[in-house]
């Protein structure tokens, strides 16, 4: 097994097999810069590029000493692979360049505990899918009954909506409880005030690399060439606002107040060893959505943990897996662009809430507490059917390799009280 000279704990999400990209700053150097995570350190790619380490990839052009990853993301797979090869070589235990140069190490390796993370890229557009059959079925049962749980279009296309990119932030975040309209008892007049049904949604997001020209769809077989990497996504949701506003055009203010992503973008190449088969697709998708790959998805274990203000430890409230998703990322990309819509570097395509078949694998409190009918009992005896002020919710995800983990780190947020009045 390949190892780095940088010590990496066995349970670390960030061994040399991962090397995720992010944007960070420190108190001494507050300008955001691109870095790569290795163990408990961040390798400063701005400093590395200034020292000429990527000249064989980019010549004299500056691609990695930027405030965001967009330019690098737009360069495509060959450039990503070349940079990854260089980084893997420089960080390996057999390579003396960094390992034996204390001055260079001090200049380019930053302790992770001292960094502040920023959004990894400028996210121009954000799309949220609805691709877990279990989630769509659960929500359908609650709102339309068992017989009409899954609407007829669902098995034919990856249902989605265009979200809001301006309110996407990076973990850890404070999430202010939103104000809005709701009408919980279907009265003639709705009420206005703080949402009383705050929820999370456990999702994984794909960040787009090279885009496509408007009018030129991305074929499903080439779709993953357009994906730079994956992050965890928490699509914070105000269920009471959602229930009143969503007809007929879908979510609006119930979702647009905040979305949190994890700071480290895990490259597709690091996820390749964990590619696997997805659920059987029946009926067979239309030709433009037919994915010939035998392993179109990824075996990524996912968890949601909750901690209320009176708890010291976290409770794991959901364990699920990315492979449960019915529609693959490639199918989402193909469908998104088939009408001619152009994607751009940095666009975020979120998977939709990822629920499994088991009752503890549901990726939202709406499902875990079944619309409030079965509130969760936490380890300290408190009950939750929705998030209360001060509650903290953390998503995590990782792939288990033999002797190592490729992980996403954490995606965390804490609910703070609504504005008064
Ligand atoms: Ca969602």
Task: Give a description of the structure.
This protein is an alpha+beta fold and 421 residues long. It has two domains: 21-118, Roll (SH3 type barrels), CATH 2.30.30.230; 126-416, Fumarylacetoacetase-like, C-terminal domain (Fumarylacetoacetate hydrolase, domain 2), CATH 3.90.850. It has helices at 45-50, 55-58, 70-75, 77-91, 96-99, 102-108, 133-144, 239-245, 268-271, 329-337, 365-368; strands at 21-26, 33-38, 41-44, 109-111, 115-118, 126-129, 160-162, 168-170, 173-176, 179-182, 191-194, 198-199, 202-208, 227-234, 237-238, 259-261, 266-267, 275-276, 297-298, 301-307, 315-321, 348-350, 376-377, 383-384, 392-400, 405-416. The strands form seven sheets. Strands 6, 7, 8, 13, 14, 16, 17 and 22 form an eight-stranded mixed beta sheet that branches. The model has no long low-confidence stretch (mean pLDDT 97). Calcium ion is lined by residues 128, 201, 203, 235, 352-353. Calcium ion binds at residues 128, 201, 203, 235, 352-353.
């Amino acid at each position: 097994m390949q190892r780095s000279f940088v010590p990496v704990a066995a349970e670390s999400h960030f061994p040399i097999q991962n090397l995720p990209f992010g944007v960070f700053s420190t108190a001494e150097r507050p300008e955001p810069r691109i870095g790569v995570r290795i163990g408990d350190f961040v390798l400063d790619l701005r400093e590395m590029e200034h020292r000429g380490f990527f000249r064989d990839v980019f010549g004299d052009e500056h691609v990695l000493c930027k405030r965001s990853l967009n330019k690098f993301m737009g360069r495509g797979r060959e450039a990503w692979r070349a940079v990854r090869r260089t980084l893997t070589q420089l960080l390996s235990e057999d390579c003396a360049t960094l390992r034996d140069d204390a001055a260079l190490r001090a200049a380019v390796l930053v302790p992770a505990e001292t960094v502040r993370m920023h959004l990894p890229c400028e996210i121009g557009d954000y799309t949220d899918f609805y691709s877990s059959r279990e989630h769509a079925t659960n929500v359908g049962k609650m709102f339309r009954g068992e017989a009409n749980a899954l609407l007829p279009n669902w098995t034919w296309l990856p249902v989605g909506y265009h979200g809001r990119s301006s309110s996407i932030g990076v973990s850890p975040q404070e999430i202010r409880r939103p104000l809005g309209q709701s009408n919980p008892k279907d009265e003639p007049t709705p009420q206005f005030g703080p949402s009383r049904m705050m929820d999370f949604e456990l999702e994984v997001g794909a960040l787009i690399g090279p885009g496509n020209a408007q009018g030129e769809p991305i074929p499903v077989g080439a779709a993953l060439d357009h994906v730079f990497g994956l992050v965890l996504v928490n699509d914070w949701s105000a269920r009471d606002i959602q229930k009143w506003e969503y007809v007929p055009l879908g979510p609006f203010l119930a979702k647009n107040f905040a979305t949190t992503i994890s700071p480290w973008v895990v490259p597709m190449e690091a996820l390749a060893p964990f590619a696997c088969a997805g659920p059987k697709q029946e009926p067979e998708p239309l030709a433009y959505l037919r994915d010939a790959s035998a392993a179109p998805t990824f075996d990524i274990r996912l968890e949601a943990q909750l901690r209320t203000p009176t708890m010291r430890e976290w409770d794991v409230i959901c364990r699920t897996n990315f492979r449960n998703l019915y529609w693959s990322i490639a199918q989402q990309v193909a469908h998104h662009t088939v009408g001619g819509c152009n994607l751009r570097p940095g666009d975020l395509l979120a998977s939709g809430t990822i629920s499994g078949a088991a009752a503890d694998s549901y990726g939202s409190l709406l499902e875990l507490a079944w619309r409030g009918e079965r509130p969760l009992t936490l380890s300290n005896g408190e009950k939750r059917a929705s998030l209360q002020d001060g509650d903290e919710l953390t998503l995590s995800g990782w792939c288990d390799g033999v002797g190592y983990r490729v992980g996403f780190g954490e995606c965390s947020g804490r609910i703070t009280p609504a504005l008064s009045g």
